[in-house]
Please model this.
Amino acid sequence: MRSLTFFFIALCLLVGGALPVSAQQTPPAAAPSTPAATAPAMTRPAPPAPPPVTIQEVIKKMGFLAYPLIALSFFAVALIFFVVLTIKQNSVVSDAFMNSADALIRKQDYLGLLAVCNRSNECVAHITAKALDFATKNPTASFDEVREVTEAEGGRQASMLLQRVSYLADIGSMSPLLGLLGTVVGLITSFNEIATGGFAGSQTMGVAKGVYQALFNTAAGLIIGIPSLMVYSVYRGKVQRLISELEAASTHLMALLAAQYKRAARAAASRNAPQGASEHAH
Model:
């Protein structure tokens, strides 16, 4: 009986000593797994930043069509500055010139008005100078002929104003097409290299590189074309308004000249009437 009691006590001691050992051994076995899995993710180095792309590299990637696009960009910038500086109210019709022309026509000082027109660079001054030059060189010409010369010069001045802004529309439509042509040429070159085995083993990378380089042309064409069309859309309406004012100013000056023509004709008729009456009396 004692041996059985001793055996039972010994078994309890063994089981009680084994439980703490197993409880202490299991956590260390699972604990290192978590840092071991997370450590590489926390210490992974960041990918290096791509190097900046220079202008020379962009031109090289664009190919031979980069040079026409560069020329178009310079021409577009120069034309935009020219349009902004020249298409304005004082370069077409100004109040100062109209007041001077009105006063000189009423005084019948046509030589003085011609001198004022030659000093001015306005469109209405060119029209008035053309009419006066024709009238002085052809004293026997009728007023209808002078009016035809005036209308022809007015149409020429209006077409010159419209041409200044129409060039911007041409650039705005031409530059995206050139960019698209450069993109198509780049894609053709890339697929040709793929077909001939130039990108063997990395064809996806080859296609991506070819498209990346080719799209520079499209971007350049859009960068040139969008501002050109924006400036054209703004100044097209302004040119139409200035042409309307130019037509109104020319019509006003021609009406004053017509009144002076009629006054001169009545004065000449009144002078000739007494002479004709005296000759008839004799």
The chain is about 85% helix and 0% strand. The radius of gyration is 45 Å.
